[in-house]
C-alpha cells in the first residue's frame, strides 16, 4: 500500500476554497486577507506562499488556480 501525503499548500488551497464557497472571501480578494482568518498560523502560510512566488497582493483566485504543488 502506497500512501501519498498531500502537500501543505493543498491543505491551504482546500481551506481557502471553502472560505470562498462560504462567501467569507471573494476570488478577487488579496491573499493578505487570509491573514485575518489564520491568526498565529499566518507567518507559516505567508512563508509558504512567498516560496511559491505569490505576493500578498495577488488575488485569492490565483492560489485556487494552482493545479499542482510539486516543488522543483
From TrEMBL:
Pfam families: DUF4327. It comes from Leptolyngbya boryana NIES-2135. InterPro entries: DUF4327. It comes from the Bacteria. This is DUF4327 domain-containing protein.
